[in-house]
Amino acid sequence: MKELKELLFKLIEVGSPSGFEEPMMAALKSELEPLVDEVYDTPRGNVVGVQRGTDPEAPSIALVAHMDQVGFVVSNIDDIYGGSEDRGFIRFRKLGGPVTRAIQGQQMRLLTEKGPIVGVVGLKPGHITRPEEANTIPPIEEMYIDIGARSREEAMKMGVAIGTPIVYNAKPVELANDLIASPGVDDNGGCAAIIAVARALKETQIPATVYYIGSVEEETGLRGAGTVLYDLDVDMAVAIDTFPAGWQPDVVMRDLFYEIGKGPGIHVAHVSRGNIIVDHNRLRRWLVDTAEGNGIPYQMGIMHGGTDAISIMQTKAGIPAITLGIPRRYSHSPVEVFDLNDLSNLVKLLVTAIKGLDASFSTHRI
């Protein structure tokens, strides 16, 4: 648990918004290189680590975690008052789906080529806020980041440019009962999981070949996972992600069944754009049987939102895929909360299940 927490906190410090995953690509490659037989990155940006199995007849499996997190990007540097004088305030837009109501008043970290710059998202003083404004959330187009620059020129000299990526500057904090609150749990938790699985299997002779994959641009349309498996000999895949949980005062369990602290979630299906997309039934039974046969806690339900498994199932001739995930509260905010025990049990479930993959395992549904 201690090693897993330290690994996760290390990854959270990296900062890797969608489309700007290079720092996480480097970090993931560095972590995997001493653990597997081969590691490389693709021109698209995906990272692939390969641990070769002992039996070519055993099904090969890909563990896929996305390297990107929700974030922002600089869209302009301007005078907030709309006049001719430049003031050095930073306009920005979303990458992925950060929750709008959580943005104002937050610290931000601008990942410039000269190094990180910290700023704050400003807001109108309460003393002059009109009553009709007091309980409204301004759109992202009206928000701005103050880095202390007195002009556009000064901001640019500091390294800020249009296209500079931005992440929340919040740090992970430990709550009671092994709970962690942090930005970027989605999907630094998944990246930590595949590294932890690779560590656990490093000295083990297993029949199945395992591909440890970091995908890009999941938050902006499951884009990286749709390409990464095309030139790989993969028979099945598990997308490792996080997902919204209920059991908080403003969420009814009719809408979100999962609960943090009750084990990793083995998804039956996703609700995506109004459609219910069912994960692979045979792989779900494989994970459920492993969990129940080894006393590993798990939950099973329907996830709201999509994961890389959706793209993987439509790749090539259709690769069997399922999502295994970590429930979290306060999704896509700077304070995503999850239970470290859920992450630990997810790793335990994957390690146990992969050890049991041999030539007798069939991915066919009937």
Strand content bin: 25-35%
Total strand count, please? 18
Q: Which geometry do the CA atoms define?
A: globular
- The CATH topology of the largest domain is Aminopeptidase
- CATH architecture heading of the largest domain: 3-Layer(aba) Sandwich
Question: What's the helix count?
Answer: 9
The separation of the N and C termini measures 39 Å
Class from helix and strand fractions: alpha+beta
Low-pLDDT windows of residues: none
* Helical percentage: 10-25%
What does the average pLDDT come to? 93
Major pleated sheet: 9 strands, mixed
Write the CATH homologous superfamily of the largest domain: Zn peptidases
Radius of gyration using CA atoms only = 21 Å
Q: Total domains, how many?
A: 2
CATH class category label of the largest domain: Alpha Beta
Run of helices and strands = HHEEEEEEEHEHEEEHEHEEEHEHEEH
Describe this structure in words.
This protein is of the alpha+beta class. It folds into 2 domains: 2-69 and 184-355, Zn peptidases (Aminopeptidase, 3-Layer(aba) Sandwich); 72-168, Peptidase M42, domain 2 (Elongation Factor Tu (Ef-tu), domain 3), CATH 2.40.30. The chain contains 9 helices and 18 strands. Strands 1, 2, 3, 12, 13, 14, 15, 16 and 17 form a 9-stranded mixed beta sheet that branches. A 6-stranded antiparallel beta sheet has the order 5-4-9-6-7-8, with no helix packed on it. It has a 3-stranded antiparallel beta sheet with strand order 10-11-18. The longest helix is centred in the middle third of the chain and has 17 residues, at 185-201. It is globular. The two termini are 39 Å apart.
